[in-house]
Design a protein that fits this description.
This protein has about 900 residues and is α+β, with helices and mostly antiparallel strands. Helix content is about 65%, strand content about 5%. Strand 3 and strand 4 form a beta hairpin. Helix 2 (about 45-55) packs antiparallel against helix 3.
Length: about 900
């Protein structure tokens, strides 16, 4: 690489020397082109542009100037024999700026690096390590290229603007020498900057191509290794070769054992033995503490029968961490001691690492099962499974972990002793089939065991399950068993082993993901939603309401869920040959901008644009409130004009914020004009109604004259607004019917909103009181009934309106304001009951019934007397048949009836009339 860089710089220096010599010769010697009016200085940048664009084109450019002096040394004589006119002095070449030259040197270095990386990955025998080394460091190079491109963009625009100000060369006439020299310098500056930027863009494309090549090679290698077919386990030839290779592998194993013994004797000094002994003792102590002390530290008391969900999850995390971390620490301590003391050959270190890692993995599986399933403590079980299912899942998980550990340790041992290929194939296949067999046994135990006897001929009744494991999950397990078991039998041993590894890996990730999501919901959401110390502290210090804290809790739990699921997806895809560098590079590209054609889409730009819009709207609302509450009330303007000024200020502020957001996103007014023109054509062809409803919907959503939950009256329909969209509004009536109203009707029509300002409502109750009663006392009793109701507002206080002085009643109206308009009918019914009871107990309402029972007829006294005589003439038997017999009266009652004064003339006509009415009603029954 260093040699190539030196050669490139040497070629640059040769080209520069040749260009300087050519320009000097052109300036001294006459040139035929000068007589034609074209200055040679204008041609020099054009000849030099290819050399600045790509170093690969520098060799032809270097040859071209060397041949240029040939016609200059032998100029042709003029046809008329006269001497040629004197040549104009050539414009001197403007030197390249130091900053631009520094950028070119950086680009040359980056180009050499990219060429070396591209050459490293194009060879026939490229391994995973070569691809990794070629991929490392490409993102910083791409970032440097992007920064150079962004840096040169404004410079290039400024240089082009300066060149445009001079204008093109006039076709007729000659221009001054200063203008020509200035144009040449500016053209050279534009060409230099443009060539440098083009080179940076080409190198950026080259880096992206290298990334794509590396990704494609990785996927191809992964697919080739995954689906590489080997000998089938059912092939007799495989087992014959295994039998033939076993003696050699046993000899290799014995040789490795001898090497280990000799190395142990050579390096087994007191210090190394002490370090290894301490590591083994620490590991044993940690494993012993994990098995015996950690359950007590988990603080899951078996006597507690109903712990909270928060306590269950905290106990599960304690059990998981206390059961996993000591095992990991003990395994790492032993491996570190073996590595440092060099008591084990280097080729057997992976074997020790696999065995120790397998033991830690078994401990992790046991701790996870104990934390989530809690076989002996069902009250502390976070997972919703039965006792039998918990025991079976624990046994199945631990058994599969043991099988996987043994299989991986055997594979590592085969690699350490350089075992023959048939033995490696056989051991991997046997390990995969063993895992499939254990999984099949576990799934069979999860099958339905409790069956119901059919007591009658009827439809099939499903059996109860004793495992609480769903059918789709068991079906997926059986599919995995079939794939794992069949693949080694047909020769795809690597694919079978990969499926086993991926199944274990995915199951572990899903279990931890479930535990993390539930913990986030309970710990984060529960801490903010419930009346906890954290929620109370936030409410006291920040002034947030409980509803705001609930919203923050929902957003926080949702964000944590998305983040956890994304991380779990990346971890699950890691074994599939997907590099995390490529993933983060793609995420960064999507966030900071990617191009689709000529359009650059950047999530960060969109986020900042939305932030600018929100900030502008917030400032606009603040200005509006200042105008409405502070400035405009201090003026002499009327209320309507003040409202118009505030509204116009709001619209202007919103449009300014929108324009700033669009300018940040790079959307010019020309593009918006094109879009508006296209929309106007569509509107002209019959979209007026749709656009009218759309704009009306936007107005409803923005101005919010009608909100979701408001009680509105539109024509004959009254109900609650359930949903407002950009085209229509859905209103649910009180009979649970849905009314769809176009938004244009709500904007242009008359709408009665009962809860526009607030949700308070008014209840009016009409009450009739006997004319002989005190109206003030009646009004006080009605007001007291209203004030006693909990849903009636204290301010404004309930009041009574004296409507009419009638005969025989006084008409009143009780007016009360309720806290919610939806409670109007309930409050009205309650007040009717209470007012009636209060007035009836005070005898302000007659017990006879409504006012229609009292009939006052004037001038019918003769008719009354005649009817009375007819009644007496008919006799008492008929009256006794029609009317029920009167109860016997005592002597005092008869005496009181006889002593009734004749002056009581008002009640006398009413009694016969009432009796006659009673008789007629009974007759018509």
């Amino acid at each position: 690489m260093l040699r190539r860089c030196l050669l490139t710089r040497f070629r640059h220096r040769i080209v520069g020397t040749a260009l300087i010599a050519t320009l000097a010769a052109t300036a001294v010697l006459p040139n035929p082109a000068v007589g034609q009016g074209s200055p040679p200085a204008a041609q020099a940048p054009a000849a030099q542009a290819p050399a600045a664009q790509a170093p690969a084109a520098q060799a032809p450019a270097a040859k071209q100037p060397t041949a240029a002096p040939t016609p200059a040394n032998n100029p042709p004589a003029p046809a008329n024999g006269q001497a040629a006119p004197a040549a104009k002095p050539a414009a001197p070449k403007a030197p390249t700026s130091e900053a631009l030259q520094t950028l070119r040197d950086r680009l040359d270095t980056i180009k050499a690096d990219l060429e070396a990386r591209e050459k490293a990955i194009t060879g026939p025998n490229v391994g995973a390590g070569d691809l990794t080394r070629a991929r490392d460091g490409l993102d910083p190079l791409a970032d440097r290229l992007r920064s150079i491109i962004d840096l040169l963009g404004p410079r290039l625009e400024a240089a082009r603007e300066r060149l445009t100000q001079i204008g093109p060369k006039p076709k007729e006439g000659e221009e001054s020498e200063e203008v020509a020299r200035e144009r040449a310098e500016r053209e050279q500056a534009v060409n230099d900057i443009d060539g440098t930027q083009r080179l940076a863009k080409s190198l950026l494309v080259q880096s992206d191509q290298i990334v794509d090549q590396i990704s494609n090679r990785r996927r191809a290698a992964f697919t080739r290794g995954l689906f590489e077919r080997s000998s089938s386990l059912l092939t007799p030839d495989l087992w014959m070769r295994v039998g033939a290779d076993i003696p050699r592998d046993i000899s290799s194993l014995k040789s490795g054992f001898d090497d280990t013994v000799s190395l142990f004797r050579r390096n087994g000094n007191l210090w190394n033995l002490l370090v290894l002994g301490l590591a083994l003792g620490l590991s044993v102590a940690l494993y012993f503490g994990r098995r015996n002390i950690a359950p007590a530290l988990g603080r899951r008391d078996i006597n507690v029968t109903n712990p909270s969900r928060r306590a269950k999850l905290l106990g599960a995390w304690r059990v998981l961490l206390l059961g996993t971390l000591p095992a990991l620490a003990g395994s790492y301590a032993v491996y570190y001691a073996l590595d440092v003391t060099e008591l084990l050959p280097a080729r057997f270190l992976p074997v020790a690492s696999t065995i120790l890692g397998g033991i830690a993995f078994i401990a992790f599986v046991e701790a996870t099962a104990d934390a989530l399933l809690a076989v002996n403590k069902p009250a502390w079980r976070p997972a919703p499974v039965s006792d039998a299912a918990a025991w079976r899942i624990t046994a199945l998980a631990v058994s599969i972990a043991v099988v996987i550990t043994v299989s991986k340790s055997t594979e590592a041992l085969n690699s350490a002793i350089y075992a023959a290929l048939p033995i490696s194939i056989a051991t991997r296949g046997i390990g995969a089939i063993s895992a499939a067999l254990l999984l099949a046994i576990g799934l069979h135990r999860f099958a339905d065991t409790a069956e119901k006897e059919e007591e009658c001929f009827g439809p099939y009744v499903g059996t109860e399950t004793s495992s609480n494991i769903g059918g789709p999950l068991r079906l997926l397990g059986w599919v995995a068993v079939a794939v794992i078991a069949v693949a080694p039998l047909v020769g795809y041993v690597a694919f079978s082993a990969f499926v086993v590894d991926q199944l274990i890996w995915s199951a572990s990730i899903l279990v931890l993901l479930w535990l993390l999501i539930v913990s986030a919901d309970v710990l984060i959401g529960g801490s903010l939603c419930e009346d906890t110390r954290i929620a109370t502290t936030l409410q006291a210090n920040t002034g947030l309401r409980k509803r705001s804290l609930n919203q923050i809790a929902v957003l926080a739990t949702g964000f944590s869920r998305v983040l956890l699921i994304a991380v779990a997806a990346l971890l699950a895809l890691a074994p599939w040959g997907l590099d995390s560098t490529d993933i983060f590079s793609s995420i960064r590209t999507a966030f900071f901008g990617f191009k689709v054609g000529d359009v650059t889409i950047s999530l960060s730009a969109i986020a900042f644009g939305v932030g600018i819009l929100v900030l502008g709207v917030f400032i606009t609302r603040g200005v509006q409130r200042w105008l409405e509450n502070t400035y405009l009330p201090a003026t002499d303007l009327d209320a309507g004009l003040r409202n118009s000024i505030s509204t116009v200020a709001g619209y202007v502020g919103f449009l300014l914020a929108l324009a700033l957001a669009f300018s940040y996103l790079g959307l010019s007014l020309e593009k918006l004009t094109i879009v508006a023109g296209a929309l106007s054509v569509g509107i002209g062809f019959g979209l007026q109604s749709i656009v009218n409803n759309f704009v009306s919907g936007l107005l409803l959503l923005w101005e919010r004259p009608i909100r979701v939950g408001d009680q509105v009256l539109i024509g004959d329909s009254e109900g609650i607004v359930r949903r407002i969209s950009v085209r229509s509004t859905e209103i649910q009536t009180f009979d649970r019917s849905a009314v769809i109203v176009p938004n244009s009707n709500l904007i242009s029509g008359i709408v009665k909103n009962r809860v526009r300002g607030d949700r308070t409502g008014r209840v009016i109750i009409s009450v009739n009181v006997l004319r002989s009663k005190d109206p003030v006392a009646a009004a006080e009793m009605m007001v007291a009934c209203a004030k006693a109701h909990p849903d009636v507002l204290k301010e404004p206080a309930p009041r009574v309106v004296f409507k009419k002085i009638g005969d025989p009643f006084l008409e009143f109206e009780l007016i009360a304001m309720v806290v919610d308009v939806n409670l109007g009918q309930k409050v009205q019914s309650d007040l009717n009951f209470s007012v009636f009871k209060a007035l009836a107990d005070a005898e302000f309402i007659p017990p006879m019934g409504p006012a229609s029972s009292f009939i006052t007829v004037q001038g019918l006294e003769p008719v009354r007397d005649a009817l009375g005589q007819i009644a007496h003439a008919v006799g008492s038997p008929a009256a006794q048949v029609i009317a029920p017999p009167a109860p016997p009266r005592s002597q005092s009652e008869e005496r009181a009836a006889d002593d009734t004064p004749s002056s009581d003339s008002k009640e006398a006509p009413r009694r016969p009339t009432g009796a006659s009415q009673d008789v007629s009603l009974r007759r018509h029954g």
